[in-house]
Each structure stands twice: as C-alpha cells, then as structure tokens.
Amino acid sequence: MTLWDERVCALFRSQWRKTVTYWSVFFSFGLCIAFLGPTILDLRCQTHSTLQQITWVFFSQQLFLLVGSSVGGIFKRTLRLSLLALFTSTLTISLVFFLIPLCYDVPMLSIALAIAGLAMGVIDTVANLQLVKLYQKDSAIFLQALHSFIGLGALVSPLVADPFLADDSCIMAANATEANSSVNLEHIRSSLAGPGAALTNVSGYPLHTKGVADTQVSYAFWTMALINLPVPIAVLFLLSHERLLPCSRTSPRLLEQSPVAEPEQAHVGVFRCLDKLRARPPSFFLLQIVGGAILFITDGIIGSYAGFVYTYAVSPPLLMTHKTAGYLDSIFWAAITLSRLAFIYLSYRYPAPKLITLSLIGVVLIHGLLMIFYTSQIFLFIGTTVLGLCISSVFPSMLAFTEDALEYKGCATTVLVTSASSGEMLMQLLVGSVIQDHGSYSFMLCCTIASFTGFCLFLLFLYVRHRHKNVQDPSTDCTKDMDMKEIPVPAAGS
Question: What is the pTM of this model?
Fold first, then answer.
C-alpha cells in the first residue's frame, strides 16, 4: 500500500510550481511572526524608548495583519492578480527587514511593522485561497503542508537573530551599569512573546533610555532580508512561467489552454454572485460565522498560550527558573510544526470532521489536566507538547472542511483567515488583562473555558452543516465555474 494514491500525486505533479510557491510565501509569514520577541530589547535601544513605548509595535503589526487578512480577498479574482499580490507582499517583507535598522524612533518603527503586518495578512488570505481553489476536496493535505512552513520560518528567525542580540544593556549611559546589572534580559525577552504579553508584562523593569546605543541587531535584520529574498523571486518566476507578467502580454498565456475570465468578466461574475447571495439559505452564512468563531478561539488559544506560558511557569505555585521556563515556548511551537507535518498524511487518510473532533477533544482534555496538575512542572512540559500536537491542525482542517461544506465557492476563506487573525490578537489582550487582574492561575482557566467553547461551537457547526446539506440549492452555485477556470488542464503527455 502506497502512502498516496496516483490521483493525488498526479494533482501535485500538474500543479507543483504553484503549490511550492504558495508554500514558500508562508515561510516569509513565519519569519515575520517570530522576530519581534527576541529582538524587542535591542529595538528598544535603537529607538531609545521605554518598554511601554516599544511594545506597542507588536500591536501595530497585529492590527495591520488583521487589515491585510480582511482585504486580501479582493486579489482572488484572477491568478495574475493573486500572484502580483504575493510578489509585492513578499518583496515588501524583505524591504521592511532592510529598513528596520534605519528606524530610530518608535513611530517610524511602528509604520514599518504596520506595512509588514499588511503584507503578512495579504499572504495569509491569498495563499490559503489559491490552494483551496487549486485542490478543492484534496486541499486539506496541502493546507497542512502550507501551515507547516510558518513553523519553519518561525524557527529560522530567532536562530538568525540570536548571535546579534545584546548580552547586557545596549544603552551605554553614565551610572547605568550597576542599575542594569540586576536586570535579567532573558527573562524580559521571554516575557514579551506577543502583543498581549508585551502590553501587560512591561512594568518593573528599570532600563535606561538615554545614552549611546550599542547593538548589532541590524545585521540580523539584513540577514533575514537576504534569506527572504528568494521567495519573491520564486513568485516572479511563477508569474513568468504562466506568462502573466506585463512584458509577456504579446505571447499567448499558458492559461489560455483552458478558458480564463478576463478581469471585466471576473467583475461581472463577482457582482452576479453578490446578487445571488440574497437567495442563499441562512445556513450558508451561519456556517461561515460559526467556523470563524471556532478559529477565533483556537488561534486565540495558540497566541495566548505562546504569549503567557512563560509568565505562568515562573509565577507561583510552579516558580520555574527563568532558563527552564524559557524552553516551554520553543517546545510548543516545535510540537505545532511537527504535528502539521504529520497531519499531511493524516488528512489524506481520515476525514476532516474526525480529525477536528479528536483535536478539539484533546485540547479540552489537556487543558483540564493542566488545571488539575497545576503544581507539576513536569506535567506542564508534557501538557505543552500535547497541546501543540492537538491544536496545530485545526486551522487548515477547518478551512478545508468549511469550504467543502460550501462546495468550494471561495466564500469562507477570507472570513476564516480574518477571524483567526482577530482571535490571535484580541484573545491575547483579553487573557493578558485577566492575568493582570486575577493572577497567573486565571491564564489556564481562560484557556480551558475557551477550548470547551470551541468544541461546543464545532458540534453546532456539524449540526448546521447537516441542515445546510438538506436545504442547499445547486442552482445558486455561481462561482464554481469561475473557480474551476483557475485550474489549468494539463496537456496530454505533459
């Protein structure tokens, strides 16, 4: 028995250039996700700002990532528009990495990271949309691989930055040595892992803001700019191969082997679909709303856990050492990446409802056990690993499952991606404020309540999907033909 049947292999062989390109752009996404936490103290020195001031750049990046996710859907009309959006976004990320060392105050740095966040949001929506349209009922397999590239980028970014980070205070000020010698910089870096953590864990650290900045973090950003540069080049090659570059207009496009809607026709199709939405049953919209709510919660749990597990571990009753607790975040992201690689095969062997159900049950159970064994340091490491293994596949599986329920009309992807981005930002802020008011134990309680709510919402999703299958009208399918036109038919013998 082979791991993959010939049909899936043939699909991949016919679309491998597009698929690998979409995977690579998520590497850029991962690079941007992970670099701020490790470099935030050096950026504070570069901008001569306080921790309270510099940590707002987290919020700037996350806010515009949400905006980019929301507007990314407008680029789905044609393949050319989607690829141009990906090329512009990935090239923008390299440019932002190059320009960050030239930002000497917080407003300039916030603008640079807002631009990077906008590019990340566009990448998130467009790459997911294109893979769903490309593979449709087989998209779950390739979406799992797509999201594993986030973990790869998130792994590379801190490794590149680490050799260039300051070992002590990087602002040389008079009488500053004694004041800063008692500050554990590794503890501060581990505490500031995300927007929620950054905005709630910045008190009590006496770091100087006046003096000469002595940091080499610029080399880290310039290195990341070069590492990311092959990604926009890969998108450019795909544009050239598909003859979609402006200079290729005189040549027949490869996509003309099968009919492709021109932009004007695509606009007509979109407006025709908007008119048809009035005839959709309520279950059509309810599926998108409930699916979005599930991803709001599950991606919110991922962001909150990564942002606050360190703070939870070093607080009573666990009281881990700073160095030991610092491994938790790395273990969590490693488990997520490995699990997504494993789910590439599992998504092929088992249906999405079964995988999502087992994943959400696992998330609920592990949070419950973490609350019961809240004094055990060993179980926190075990629970963190199992949680990463369970929750990692929910987003790609839920995205493919929702589009399947809507017969791949392309309607749900933008909603789900935007909902996930919203949850990752807003739940961190919510959980951070609860921890600040009620103590570190409330962190695990919040995650447990959220995971149970997510599981209940998935049961509701299954019920709505069942009702939708009974009432849906095939005559309302107005985008299926448009989406199929995006898939070139391989010539015989190719």
Answer: 0.82
